[in-house]
Amino acid sequence: MRAVVIGSGIGGLASALRLRKAGIDVLVIEANEFSGGKINSKWIGDYRFDMGPSIFTEPELMDELVQLFDQESFPHRKLAESCRYFYSDGFSATLPVGKNALIDVLVNNFGESPKTVYRYLERMKKNYEAVKPVFIEVSLHRIKHLVNAGLMNAIARIPQYGISSSMHSVNKSVFKNPKTVQLLDRFATYNGSSPYKSPGMLNIISHLELNKGPAMPVGGMVQITQVAFEGCKKLGVEFILGEKVNEIHSLEGKVTGVSTAKGTYDADIVVSNMDVHFTYERLMPTVKAPQKILNQEKSTSAIVFYWGIRKKVEQLGVHNILFAENYEKEFSCLFESKTMSDDPTIYIHITSKLESQDAPPDCENWFVMVNAPINEGQDWDEFVVRTRSNLIQRIQNTLQFSVEDYLEVEEYFDPRKIEETYFGKQGSIYGNSSNSAFAAFYRHPNFSKTIKGLYFAGVTVHPGGGIPLALNSAKIIERCVKEDYGLVNR
User: Which residues are CB-neighbours of 483 under 8 A, at least 6 positions away?
Assistant: First the structure.
């Protein structure tokens, strides 16, 4: 059997690895000249930048992946702190990793009740552990996947999920300090959504960072896809880079292969790691698309600045958040008026805090990101100039530090470039948002219900956005393929 994987993001690479391990010949076709999708790296002068995702949780999923090609574990470091938070009124706090230390900070710095914090963290932990085996690790669209040992536990916890309330409403009902609420609300942005619209269920995202803690791959985030790429080659997966797939072919309800400008590649199985919207629109224009799924509200995009700073800024850690004063207004701009707030929340990621080779001595590589609306033809040139000015002023006000006095190199990405480079429709990073109570159930399945042999991986399909969920999409595809073709584990 032969499989073609379209796109080499982590969902595509993990799918290629798993299918090859199952004994299937695999070819990965990537439109860009580099592998890795959004998880890639670039040197700008003497500074190295991870260009895309920057939060790494559940490293055990990467351990599991590299063990497919006989590597014991994925090299990474556990971080001692999850994030440093800076508020508009001058208040700041660093959240340590470890439940007891975290509770101490939320009690002593934020004025919360220790019992309240403990109960919330335990609730999110138990909710996540209940949902994981019946939603994250299996297909929602195959009954035999859902019927497992964890189903009754997941059902029993339904009253604890907060499905009928928003993330913000749940957090506001639990905590008395608005700063605590804002801190917890930010986890909606992990899949490009709004805490004022997303269901309380999404608060389980906080479990991965607050209870378990983030990690950092040795060598930067790019190692996630680079190690997977090398593992694929080790197992005999073939790659074609710099060649764009133009069409997925099928005949009598079965996939037959794909074609590019250079030729046709026959296949029994096709896995699309491309944005599911563009998979239908560009690669299968004559196939009836599931419009109810594809017409859901899309997730946010981003404006990212890559700044080489000739200074070490001690106030900052690996992960840093400078909060907007009016969080609700910011999300209104993102999802309602589709514009850029003049007071956006700023995220700063600095890998050189751990990876000294990523910047020259006494310098730092700043990945500076603000959420942005999807591209609907706005004046992005103006947005970028205005946002840059606002960021520099906000950072100076917060840190008493003038970025422009120490700025050595600079590049930026905006929704137009995200759409062009990574083929995310309208620059959306995660496909559909989670801005409704049942949005999770309207993500596209990991397989086609009308074309045998066609599967879907990555952040725009089930189970959702983020590296752990993309890795789980590949696990679901592996199981579905084995079921569909009667393959046994190898």
Answer: 142
The amino acid at residue 355 is E
Residues 6+ apart with CB under 8 A from 485: 1, 268
User: What is the residue range of 363's domain?
Assistant: 40-56+73-97+300-429
Residue 120 lies in a domain: yes
CA-closest candidate to residue 237, choices 473, 469, 468, 8: 8
For residues 182 and 330, the answer to whether their CB atoms sit within 8 Å is no
Same domain, 309 and 379: yes
Tell whether 206 and 140 lie within a shared domain.
Answer: yes
Q: What are the backbone dihedrals phi and psi of residue 468, each rounded to the nearest 5 degrees, phi first?
A: -60, -40
Domain contains 232 = no
Closest residue by Cα to residue 97 from 355, 317, 347? 317
Please, which pLDDT band fits residue 453 given cuts at 50, 70 and 90? very high
Cα(194)–Cα(328) distance, integer angstroms = 9
Q: The tokens of 376 are what? A: 């609907």
Instruction: Take residue 185 and report the two structure tokens written for it.
Output: 């609300």
- The token duo for 75 is 């090299």
Q: Which residues pair with 166 in a beta bridge?
A: 199
pLDDT of residue 55: 96
